[in-house]
Every structure is written in C-alpha cells, then in structure tokens.
Amino acid sequence: MKKIEVDLVRTKVYNLLKEMILNHELKLGEKLNVRELSEKLGISFTPVRDALLQLATEGLVKVVPRVGFFVTDVDERFIRETIETRIMMEVFCLENYFERIASSEELLKIKEEIENVESSLKRDLFDDADERLHKLFIKASGNELIISLYEKIWDRIDLVRHLNERYIVSNREHKELIESILRGDKEDAVEKLKKHLKNVEEETIRNLYTYEKG
Ligand code: NI
C-alpha cells in the first residue's frame, strides 16, 4: 500500500474504534484483542495496534505491558475528577467572559436546538446541543491554552456523559441556564451551571453501579 492509503486506513480505524468506545459498544474495562478486532474489521494487525496506541495517549485505552489493551475503566474518582475540572474551567469562563457569551449568536442557535430536543426527544440532538453549549463557554475566553486543554479532556467528558440517561432533565437545565444568561443574571447563571454539573456527576456515579462492564 502507498503511504497515503496506510494513513487513511489508520485514521478510519482510529475513528471507528473511538466511536465504539465512546458509545460503549466496547465496554469500559473490556479487554481489546487486536487479532479479533483486525479480523472483524477485515484489515491487518498494524493499523489496529497503531490506533489503539493513539487512543491510549488520549486516555481512552489503557496499555498493560505484556497483557494487552483495555478500554479505560471508569470509577467514581474518574468521574469526580472530570466534573471538578469541568467546573473549574467552565465556571471560570462563564464568569469572566459573561458578556461575550450573552451576546453571542451561537447561544441563540443552541437555544433553538434545545427546543428541538424538547419536541423530538432525540438523544443525538441533545448530545450535539450539550457539546456546543459547554464548549461555547470555553471558546468565549478566546484563550488558546484554555481551549486546547478543554479539547484534550473532551473525550473523557464524552465517555462520562454517555453513562447517564438524564438528557431530558439536562436539556431543561440547559434551557434555564441560557435564560439566566440572556437575562444578564450572571450570579444566577453561574449557580445554575455549577448545579447542572453536580447533578450530572451524581447521576453518572449512580449509573456506574448498574453498568455492565466488559
Ligand atoms: Ni450539559
């Protein structure tokens, strides 16, 4: 194969495996058999191994020397650390860049999307609105370092957020949060964001105990 083809296969396998982990098709803690995966995908051993190594650097896969690859396991601590970091970054940005967020067109578009979730009850629409809203707070900072640090932990956030099924409630919390922002009530908006993230944390931890691991 030419180099460009090899790169394409590698990227495809990487994206596919990442998606399977993030939507929990491959379960938390599951052992990943490289040979089995490559047979299943109908490709050779190497791109699968490369993709897993890349996912390991991003924290979605764990490498245990002489044993093999595993999907990262999530425990209560993993969830608490993720949410604490989110509160630190998102609340800081909402407080310090409140005016920019309040006047952004993106906020109005997200509000519309949230209303679509209410009427359609589509989880993937919710996921999209959720990602856009939380990232809007971060992007409003215009601080490249904050933005790249948040991007770096996004996969981890994504893994955790698919552990909970409270999306209808979360959607309502997002709506109320946006309404506070649009009213210009910064203090209330900050409280609502903190409360929303704490609620997500509690619900996710509860669900972790009924999750069937791989
Ligand atoms: Ni949210």
Overview of the molecule:
This protein has a three-stranded antiparallel sheet with strand order 1-3-2. The chain contains ten helices and three strands; from the N terminus they run H-E-H-H-E-E-H-H-H-H-H-H-H. By secondary structure, it is mainly α. The chain has helices spanning 3-22, 34-41, 45-57, 76-96, 98-102, 105-120, 123-139, 144-161, 167-183, 186-208; strands at residues 31-32, 61-64, 68-71. It starts with a helix and ends in a 6-residue tail after the last helix. It has two domains: 3-71, Arc Repressor Mutant, subunit A; 76-208, Four Helix Bundle (Hemerythrin (Met), subunit A), CATH 1.20.120.530. The mean pLDDT is 93.
Secondary structure: elements and pairs:
Blueprint: H1 3-22, E1 31-32, H2 34-41, H3 45-57, E2 61-64, E3 68-71, H4 76-96, H5 98-102, H6 105-120, H7 123-139, H8 144-161, H9 167-183, H10 186-208
Antiparallel strand pairs: 1-3, 2-3
Helix pairs in contact: 1-3, 2-3, 4-7, 4-8, 4-10, 6-7, 6-9, 7-9, 9-10
The structure holds nickel (II) ion.
Please indicate the count of domains. 2
Low-pLDDT residue spans: none
Tell me the name of the CATH homologous superfamily of the largest domain: GntR ligand-binding domain-like
Assign the structural class, choosing from mainly alpha, mainly beta, alpha/beta, alpha+beta, or little secondary structure: mainly alpha
Brief summary of the model shown:
This protein has 214 residues and is mainly α.
Give descriptors for this structure.
3-stranded antiparallel sheet; 5% strand; Four Helix Bundle (Hemerythrin (Met), subunit A); Arc Repressor Mutant, subunit A; 214 residues; elongated; mainly alpha; binds nickel (II) ion; single chain
